[in-house]
Amino acid sequence: MALRFQQFLLTLCISAAALPCFAADSKDNDGTVVINPIKIIEPDLKLHKTEQAKIDDEVFEVGFFTGLISIEDFGSHPLYGLKASFHATEDFFLQMNYGMSKAGKTSYETVSGSGINILADKDREYTYYDLLVGFNIFPGETFVTSKHTFNSAFYLVGGAGNTDFAGDNHFTLVIGSGYRIVLTDWLTWNMDYRDHMFETELLGHKKQTHNLEFASGLTVFF
């Protein structure tokens, strides 16, 4: 008796679950039951295509940069330069830089009022060249609008070079970082930070100087 009662309840539950599917049923003129199909409304989804600039097969990159360089003890001054890079792989590249600026006066020269100049005007010319190894650590994408996105990368660089300043040449170690945005398949925009480190005895004692550079520029691929 209990088994029959359980079968009856199971049949009743199945019938109740199927009832909504036939809620819209109607009868024809001759009494025939017509089952109206259930309409499924699909969401109106529109997929937006994004336009993405990317580098094709070009591995050489050349361009210019401009910015500021803080020459230790001599203030911050405009900087101009040229750069060239060779992209050996997607992650590693070699880069050569040439930059030029001009140092100002030290705080001692400014406040002493004695008219004493530590450097002649020609010796205040500051130029450097270096060879760096770069590594793209965070390649990704930069979204400008819902339809436009650009390939980009955050990278680290390190290497060595030479700095001509105060009538002397200084072996220079360079470390830094940068951010690159690929505007088209041949044009990129770069922001770079560098620390140029060399030893000098210009102010009477030997010390390691840190000359900080912040620059931005455009480069082309070919």
Any descriptors?
eight-stranded antiparallel β-barrel; 10% helix; two-stranded antiparallel ribbon; 222 residues; Porin; 2 helices; 56% strand; mainly beta
Lateral arrangement of strands in the main beta sheet: 4-5-6-7-8-9-10-11
Number of structural units classed as domains: 1
DSSP strand count: 11
Q: Indicate the mean pLDDT.
A: 83
Q: End-to-end distance, in Å?
A: 88 Å
Strand fraction equals over 45%
Low-confidence parts, pLDDT < 50 over ≥5 residues? Answer: none
Largest sheet: 8 strands, antiparallel, barrel
CATH class: Mainly Beta
| SSE arrangement, N to C | HEEEEEEHEEEEE
Number of H/I helices: 2
Helix content: 10-25%
Structure description:
The protein is mostly beta strands. The protein contains 2 helices and 11 strands. It has one domain: Porin. The strands form 2 sheets. It has an 8-stranded antiparallel β-barrel. A hairpin with a 3-residue loop joins strand 4 and strand 5. The model has no long low-confidence stretch (mean pLDDT 83).
Indicate the topology:
Blueprint: H1 2-18, E1 26-27, E2 33-34, E3 51-53, E4 60-71, E5 75-87, E6 92-102, H2 107-112, E7 125-143, E8 148-165, E9 168-182, E10 187-200, E11 207-221
Parallel strand pairs: 3-8
Antiparallel strand pairs: 1-2, 4-5, 4-11, 5-6, 6-7, 7-8, 8-9, 9-10, 10-11
